Amino acid sequence: MRLDDPREEARRVLRLCNVCNYCNGYCELFRAAERHRIFSDGDLATLAHLCHNCRNCWQACQYAPPHPFAVNVPLVLAELRLLSQTELAWPRPIAHLGLLTLAVSLLPVLLVLLLVPGESLFAAHTGPGAFYRVIPWATMSLAAALPLGWSLLALGVGLVRFWRAGGGARGAEMRAACPEALRDAILLRNLDGGGVGCDDGNGLPSFWRKRFHHLVLGGFLLCLASTMVATLYHHWLGLEAPYPVLSLPVILGSLGGLGLIAGSLGLLALKQGADPAPIAPAAVQSGRLLLGQLVAMAASGLVLLALRDSPAMGILLALHLGTVIGFFVALPHGKFAHAPYRAAALLRAALERRNDER
Amino acid sequence: MTPPVPPSPDLPVGAVVVIGGGTAALCAAIAARRAGASVILLDRAPPENRGGNTRHSRNLRIMHCAPSPLFPGSYDEADFHADLTKAAEGAGDEALGRLLIRRSAAVPDWLAAQGVAFQTIACGGLPWSRKTAFFLGGGTAMINTLYATATRLGIDIRHRSHVIGLSRDGAVTLADGAGGTRTVRARAVVVASGGYQANPVWLAEQWGDDAAELIVRGTPFAAGEPLRALFDLGAASVGTPGACHLVAVDGRLTEADGGIVTRVDGLDLGIAIDRDGKRFEDETTITGPTRYAQWGRRVAALPGRIAHAVWDADAVDRVPPAIVEPIRVESLEALAAFLAVPIADLAASAADSGRVTRAPFFTVPIRPGLTFTCYGVRIDDHSRVLTPDGEPLGCLFAAGMIMAPNVIGTGYLAGAALTIGAVFGRIAGEEAAEHALG
What we know:
The structure holds two protein chains of two kinds.
Chain A: H1 6-20, H2 28-33, H3 41-50, H4 56-60, H5 73-88, H6 97-115, H7 118-121, H8 137-165, H9 171-187, H10 208-235, H11 248-273, H12 281-306, H13 313-330, H14 338-357
Helix pairs in contact in A: 1-5, 3-5, 3-8, 3-14, 6-13, 8-13, 8-14, 9-14, 10-11, 11-12, 12-13
Chain B: E1 16-19, H1 23-34, E2 39-42, E3 59-61, H2 77-88, H3 94-104, H4 107-113, E4 132-134, H5 139-152, E5 156-158, E6 162-166, E7 171-175, E8 181-185, E9 188-191, H6 200-207, E10 215-216, H7 225-232, E11 237-250, E12 271-273, H8 291-300, E13 307-311, E14 327-329, H9 332-339, H10 343-353, E15 361-377, E16 384-386, E17 392-398, H11 405-408, H12 416-437
Parallel strand pairs in B: 1-2, 1-9, 2-5, 9-17, 10-15
Antiparallel strand pairs in B: 3-4, 6-7, 7-8, 11-15, 12-13, 13-15, 14-15, 16-17
Organism (chain A): Magnetospirillum fulvum (Rhodospirillum fulvum)
Keywords (chain A): Membrane, Transmembrane, Transmembrane helix
Protein name (chain A): Citrate/tricarballylate utilization protein
């Protein structure tokens, strides 16, 4: 009974879910779907991003295959997320994202090997400005800022399209719903599985997925904070990197890096043992790419920290810079895009909840 | 945390055999295991279809004295007793009914101790219900949890076990799938295999040859062989042969296990006609939570056991959403041709109702959907199967829908079936363990 077109299949399945309703204790998706009798393409994109892929509804479904109704909500919504992200992408989706990011990540290493004289590249530099004696500050800043700026623009365009397709903005109402949506996004409330955690396929729900996801999210935010503090140090206080081990940028970055590594490896391990039936293979692939990038970025940063006084610093710096640029390049085209889209979907749901209460 | 399990005593494997795979069977198996018996669970279904009719359930009816995270109000013994008495129309056993009601109060905590999660009111999304508690994710989620717990406790679960015979002393005969039989011996047997709603041959005894026209809404494995075996051994019956719970379902969805999403609703917004195009009921008078069952009974009594819902263009948008769109036809003439009914009768039906006027028109075939049969074995307050003399029938116990008519006759009360399964499942399991170990 499964339909080939993900959107038609999602309409068929969510229509059935709205009649059944048994899963509406699990997450916001089912409570949001109940507000629709017909589902526009924009509604479907929003609903797809409300799904946090806990898969409890798959385990609990009385209509899952081999039942002829063949309901598989997490699978069709994962396919729909991929489809809508591809369609919303601007300027257009990138093929072979994995290869591209790998190439971008390794490019700075190649460039320093070619362009920086060996006696400088493999010398032990110490003291303020040590990094910039290998890669000048302006070069480093530009190499990071340009792809980041471009990617944020692309992500912004996609997000605006997503928001408009889901029903558009509503000024003051939207602002009022923001705190609630932010809380749902930061706390990952929809990964609670209705209070029991998520089942990764072994029949025993747990909160590990949520914990690992929180480690990734927290680690990412700490690294972001580290970079921002370092920028302030550089411009306002005139302090040049590398910073002492007990300085704010290093402490924030180290904790963030450890969080990213622990969380990403945890999520990768959970993917390994998961029941394949409710999972879209392409989504797993893009998830692995992002997690791999995060691990590479964090690990290269931590190794750089450990060996920054040694002759290996130059190469490690280039490698770390490369992983960061690779991450920036992939931002709007890979798994990372789920974060802003999900936040927007949570905002839409918070808006509609407030409308219901009126 | 769940309490520790007493060490397994030095008994042959299968001290207690439980037959069935739904709430009553799982509760009996877990209770017997926790009481110290070794337990084998024999379920007719393959693992992917496990859970009996519980797969399609969502809530249980619970006595409770105060509001709680699960209930917005209270529901005391007198309230529950009044509802049960009304539903049973006087056919229920007073003492067993009281037992059900009083023991229901402990069911949520007991199930929670087995790992079962309930949906709280705070979670949102629930219909207001002071009488019933809802499983988080519904009956299939509960069943998954109970199977996981049963496995952890060391209960030997054997799917695709087709029980065809029983004896008073605990010999259970299974079909081996190759035309032969094999036997499992137990010191006590709990029969929790439900009714015989998926057995058209047995149903034909009262329903005639077109019993197969009744659409099985639940598990297709409820063929009732263990029930028949109990009668063959001389068990006393309760309920009425052929009596069953019926609801109106979409006649295009004829496969078993349709559960709750195949029901037809919104008939009060249009008309219901029989196979000759004539109305048989004032549709607007059939409302409230029992409307599906009222329509099910009426359609089952019609010639051909079929009816058709018809709505017009103004009404169709107000009909509650269904999983399959109604069939659209552009005129009454086209509808008459499509349904093969005389246009004059159809036009008269539409005109008389005053609700079916503007084209296009929309129609859905309605069939009776069969939830469960209301015919089972008499038990005592230890869940022992009784003979007509009131004597226990060997080491045989019964729980769940196979004994439900003891308390509810041939009636229906939302959420009561699950409570009967949980309460008498636990009683039967504990008593069977005591019988086996004693």
